[in-house]
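Hypothesis: this fold can be encoded by more than one sequence.
Test: take the structure tokens below, design a sequence, compare later.
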């Protein structure tokens, strides 16, 4: 009972979709450290991008994605993404995902940096929840075995091949081991690195840490996307206010009520996310405030309440009628463009080990993800992983130029504060956040190196997660320190412009 053809770590859209594809070709086990529904997918509001509209094309989607990636997208991976998108959307519809329609056709909306409306949504602003519920229902009704509250702690290697996974039962504290032919990491991102994040508590970079410790390559990890608009209220978790709100005409105003985005970018509110996030930070500093405001009061109330029912209800529950009043917002960590380096079949440099979703770095996002490409990436490349395991497709290493590094020991910081989750998150937010500098990154790197040395061996879920977060923090910080330029979501005040020599990827590997 402890040996499977496929073991999948994670129960978001990447893991569930991969499991539903793999069940036709062998036995499948899903491991998730919480419940099946405890994922970031469930809270994805904006939608999923695909060129299915009359005035759209794969070529146009390709060009928009490449432009957003700031010179670091893998063109082959992007071509696969946009060309296979319509078929994968058809898969979701067959599984029962009820995308919103208008006059009998799937409704499409426009988001920042898309040249045409191409974003599908479900339940208005509840796309992730609708996909998650639909796929998890399919999984529960199938022969797929699901072990909830089971944390993956170590990849088992047989020589140079991934052969299984060691686990910890989060409720009993007992350990176990499961063997497999193919191991797929789909455990999401690492948003909990930061004090302010739209991510849920599960996003602790577990898959990235597992892969790195096993010898897999980690790429582009310095590129963290900070969503410009998460609600900022005392004592309230940074609830995401979808970019689609700005796509529908929402305006950003500073604490003095002035609309400011036209002063920062010709696209104004629809500029790329990194531009909007930095602009908000500058306005907050200029006005001495910890927030700006998103204004939709000029839009028809019926449009606001029907297009964004979750956002409307959430704000109303917190005393704000957004059809009449302004929404207090500020940037928050949202998505990691980098992760476990894979080729166009989802393969890592370790045989038998694959990665999908936010855990993976497929190369489609480059330095700055195009809005609503993330959900699409998960299903396109999860499908390709399963296809790869059942045919003899030629191994295709990621072709992009890159430099490989290892994490070096740094001098211990005599001023390192006591290690805690909040301390780690505050350090990352203050020194490795939206606006970085060589000095702030060096200070963070020294403290993180000290913390890694004093970490006790993990024994339960919180301590494993803290270990994984510290490792992820070191990878992010060291990569940001190495990249002496500003590109996409990575911005340094001491190197404020992109540098052609840095149009390459920073790759970490433990055994180099």
């Amino acid at each position: 009972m402890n040996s499977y053809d496929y073991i999948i770590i994670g129960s978001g859209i990447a893991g569930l979709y991969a499991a539903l594809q793999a069940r036709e070709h062998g036995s499948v086990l899903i491991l998730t450290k919480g419940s099946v529904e405890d994922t970031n997918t469930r809270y994805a509001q904006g939608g999923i991008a695909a060129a299915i509209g009359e005035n759209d094309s794969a070529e146009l989607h390709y060009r928009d994605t490449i432009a957003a990636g700031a010179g670091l997208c893998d063109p082959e991976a992007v071509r696969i993404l946009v060309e296979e998108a319509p078929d994968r959307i058809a898969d979701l519809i067959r599984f029962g995902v009820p995308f919103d329609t208008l006059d009998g056709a799937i409704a499409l909306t426009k988001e920042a940096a898309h040249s045409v409306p191409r974003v599908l949504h479900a339940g208005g602003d509840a796309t992730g929840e609708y996909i998650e519920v639909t796929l998890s229902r399919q999984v529960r009704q199938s022969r797929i075995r699901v072990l909830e509250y089971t944390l993956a702690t170590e990849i088992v290697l047989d020589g140079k091949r991934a052969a299984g996974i060691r686990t910890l039962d989060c409720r009993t504290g007992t350990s176990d081991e499961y063997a497999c032919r193919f191991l797929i990491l789909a455990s999401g991102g690492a948003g909990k690195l930061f004090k302010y994040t739209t991510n849920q508590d599960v996003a602790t970079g577990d898959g990235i840490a597992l892969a790195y410790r096993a010898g897999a390559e980690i790429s582009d990890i310095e590129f963290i996307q900070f969503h410009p608009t998460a609600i900022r209220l005392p004592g309230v978790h940074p609830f995401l206010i979808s970019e689609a709100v700005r796509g529908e005409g929402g305006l950003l105003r500073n604490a003095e009520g002035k609309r400011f985005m036209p002063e920062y970018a010709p696209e104004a509110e629809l500029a790329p996310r990194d531009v909007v996030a930095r602009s908000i930070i500058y306005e907050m500093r200029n006005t001495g405030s910890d927030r700006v405001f998103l204004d939709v009061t000029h839009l028809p109330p019926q449009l606001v309440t029907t297009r964004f029912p979750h956002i409307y209800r959430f704000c109303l529950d917190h005393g704000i009628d957004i059809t009449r009043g302004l929404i207090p917002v500020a940037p928050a960590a949202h998505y990691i463009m980098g992760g476990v380096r894979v080729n166009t079949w989802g393969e890592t440099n370790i045989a038998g080990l694959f990665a999908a979703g936010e855990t993976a770095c497929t190369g489609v996002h480059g330095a700055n993800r195009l809005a609503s490409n993330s959900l699409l990436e998960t299903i396109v490349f999860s499908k390709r992983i399963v296809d790869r395991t059942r045919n003899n497709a030629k191994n295709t290493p990621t072709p992009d130029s890159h430099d490989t590094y290892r994490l070096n020991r740094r001098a211990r910081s005599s001023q390192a504060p006591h290690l805690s989750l909040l301390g780690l998150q505050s350090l990352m937010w203050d020194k490795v956040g939206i606006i970085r500098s060589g000095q702030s990154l060096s200070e963070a790197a020294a403290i993180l190196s000290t913390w890694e040395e004093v970490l006790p061996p993990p024994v339960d879920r919180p301590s494993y997660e803290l270990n994984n977060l510290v490792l992820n923090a070191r990878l992010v910080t060291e990569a940001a320190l190495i990249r002496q330029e500003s590109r996409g979501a990575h911005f340094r005040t001491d190197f404020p412009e992109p540098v052609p020599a840095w149009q390459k990827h920073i790759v970490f590997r433990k055994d180099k």
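Residues 61 and 82 are 6 Å apart (CA to CA). The mean pLDDT is 94.
Hypothesis status: open.
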